[in-house]
UniProtKB/TrEMBL annotation, chain A:
Protein name per its UniProtKB record: Proteasome subunit beta
Source organism of the structure: Escallonia herrerae
Molecular function as annotated in GO: threonine-type endopeptidase activity
Record keywords, A-Z: Cytoplasm, Hydrolase, Nucleus, Protease, Proteasome, Threonine protease, Zymogen
InterPro entries in the cross-refs: Ntn_hydrolases_N (IPR029055), Pept_T1A_subB (IPR000243), Proteasome_bsu_CS (IPR016050), Proteasome_sua/b (IPR001353), Proteasome_suB-type (IPR023333)
Family classification: Belongs to the peptidase T1B family.
From TrEMBL, chain B:
Homology family: Belongs to the peptidase T1B family.
Subunit structure: Component of the 20S core complex of the 26S proteasome. The 26S proteasome is composed of a core protease (CP), known as the 20S proteasome, capped at one or both ends by the 19S regulatory particle (RP/PA700). The 20S proteasome core is composed of 28 subunits that are arranged in four stacked rings, resulting in a barrel-shaped structure. The two end rings are each formed by seven alpha subunits, and the two central rings are each formed by seven beta subunits. The catalytic chamber with the active sites is on the inside of the barrel.
PROSITE patterns the UniProt entry points to: PROTEASOME_BETA_1 (PS00854), PROTEASOME_BETA_2 (PS51476)
Name of one Pfam family that matches: Proteasome
Protein name, per record: Proteasome subunit beta
Keywords (A to Z) from UniProt: Cytoplasm, Hydrolase, Nucleus, Protease, Proteasome, Threonine protease
InterPro entries according to UniProt: Ntn_hydrolases_N, Pept_T1A_subB, Proteasome_bsu_CS, Proteasome_sua/b, Proteasome_suB-type
One GO BP annotation of this record: proteolysis involved in protein catabolic process
Reaction equation(s) it catalyzes: Cleavage of peptide bonds with very broad specificity
GO cellular component: cytoplasm; nucleus; proteasome core complex
Main localization (coarse): cytoplasm
Length: 231, 273
């Protein structure tokens, strides 16, 4: 057991736009090798009142990047005289990620709402590419969600539909990915403000093999111990 | 992480060249001397009125116990203490450095230090050294904003938790916390739970042992309970005591005051710029 392994957030992170805003979702497991260092971490970090990010990859690297971007955005807001746009926040993250790509190991999803473009999601994976997308997924658990989103995603969802989609997706990924687990956290950002929600593991739907085993003949037969055979 | 093997002019900042050299040497079989590590079980929890930190007292050097009663709970500020696991020199140095920076900050601002200040100073320092400063810390304290407990990992990531454990005995201690921790613990319950967790580390982890140190921090007050529990007394001590017959012979006793050997100028001129 390597307790000195760098902290990584195995992770499943999701960002989804809906009609009027965005929903960000994440699991809550931070692992050091095979040990879960924090089972209730908060991977959705605030940058400004209207922009939040989902962090994945190395815990230290993503925390430092988010601290720097929060600082730059704060300066930018003061200089601009009005709330920063999601595009600016995403590009600041991209500049740090791209220019330090040899030293950083972090995948980030930037999501927020501003008055010019409305709800927007930007995915910034490992190398520092920036991609504006209607929905973005990231982290080790995202591998299990590509097909799911291809089928389940549709344009113009309502706020509740979008949130249910995110919760379902994170919970599916948690069921299949060893490096994701804990609780599901969501953040909804729209013109009215920000809402944080929390879904503990027992409130999530059970999938497939996780369901209780049905009564089988094997259980009934072994209840009465078999008689020794008489020759 | 890609390793860039390009010669670039030094731009300032820490140079990791010697770290690469060390890696290369250890691949060839030449190993550096083993460090003094605090194998360690360190814990912290938040209770009703504040924070309780706990630690064992064994310091190991490879398989040998180098210090049976070392202090792992370090002073950061009058209201902030920090437990350290990992390389003993690294934890001592990093907590001392940040403790001085906090003191200067207190003089500068005229206010009591906040736990998040210590947290940011520690995490920036550790991130700058990219995990080579092997210090895993449990930082706890009470300030104007309330009680706080954080864990800081060698690579510079931090977590904020209601209860935390670190070190080689962290799994044993976490098992105790996960089964018995609840919100709103009283001070006695909290101290008892911390003792149980550290004892679990002491008895089940080879890298932890000896005694239990506790530090209780509440608003405006702290109690440093050094060796609160001694569950490993030395059982077989000779009741007759020890007598060593052959002593070193004393040949001569003479005292020479140093004043005779050195010119001491009484008074003298005032120092000039």
């Amino acid at each position: 057991m390597d307790l000195n392994a760098p902290h990584s957030m195995g992770t499943t992170i999701i960002g989804v736009t809906y009609d009027g805003g965005v929903v960000l979702g994440a699991d809550s497991r931070t692992s050091t090798g095979m040990y879960v260092a924090n089972r209730a971490s908060d991977k959705i970090t605030q940058l400004t009142d209207n922009v939040y990010i989902c962090r994945s990859g190395s815990a230290a690297d993503s925390q430092i990047v988010s601290d720097y971007v929060r600082y730059f955005l704060h300066q930018h807001t003061i200089q601009l005289g009005q709330p920063a746009t999601v595009k600016v926040a995403a590009n600041l993250v991209r500049l740090l990620s791209y220019n330090n790509k040899n030293m950083l190991q972090t995948g980030i999803i930037v999501g927020g709402w501003d008055k010019y473009e409305g709800g927007k999601i930007y995915g910034i994976p490992l190398g520092g590419t920036i991609l504006e997308q209607p929905f973005a997924i990231g982290g080790s658990g995202s591998s299990y969600l590509y097909g799911f989103f291809d089928q389940a995603w549709k344009e113009g969802m309502s706020k509740d539909e979008a949130e249910q989609l995110v919760v379902k997706a994170v919970s599916l990924a948690i069921a299949r990915d060893g490096a994701s687990g804990g609780v599901v956290r969501t953040v909804i950002i729209n013109s009215d403000g920000v809402t944080r929600n929390f879904y503990p593991s027992d409130k999530l739907q059970l999938w497939h093999e996780e369901l209780e085993p049905q009564n089988s003949l094997l259980d009934i037969l072994s209840a009465a111990s078999p008689e020794p055979m008489n020759i | 992480m890609a390793k860039v093997e390009v010669d670039v002019p030094p731009k300032g900042g820490f140079s990791f060249d010697l770290c690469r050299r060390n890696d290369m040497l250890s691949k060839k079989g030449i190993n550096p001397p083993s460090y003094l590590k605090t194998g360690t079980t360190i814990v912290g929890l938040i209770f009703q009125d504040g924070v309780i930190l706990g630690a064992d007292t064994r310091a190991t050097e490879g398989p040998i116990v180098a210090d049976k009663n070392c202090e792992k709970i370090h002073y950061m500020a009058p209201n902030i203490y920090c437990c350290g696991a990992g390389t003993a020199a690294d934890t001592e140095a990093v907590t001392d450095t940040i403790s001085s920076q906090l003191k200067l900050h207190r003089y500068h601002t005229g206010r009591e230090s906040r736990v998040v200040t210590a947290l940011t100073l520690l995490k920036s320092h550790l991130f700058r050294y990219q995990g080579h400063v092997s210090a895993a810390l449990v930082l706890g304290g009470v300030d104007v904003t309330g009680p706080h407990l954080h864990t800081i990992y060698p690579h510079g990531s931090t977590d904020t938790l209601p209860f935390a454990t670190m070190g080689s005995g962290s799994l044993a201690a976490m098992a105790v916390f996960e089964s018995k921790y609840h919100e709103g613990l009283s001070k006695d319950e909290g101290v008892k739970l911390v003792c149980e967790a550290i004892c679990s580390g002491i008895f089940n982890d080879l890298g932890s042992g000896s005694n239990v140190d506790i530090c209780v921090i509440t608003k405006g007050q702290k109690e440093y309970l050094r060796n609160h529990l001694l569950p490993n007394p030395r059982t077989y001590v000779s009741s007759k005591g020890y007598s060593f017959t052959k002593k070193t012979e004393v040949l001569l006793t003479k005292i020479t005051p140093l004043k005779e050997l050195v010119d001491v100028i009484e008074g003298g001129d005032a120092m000039e710029e």
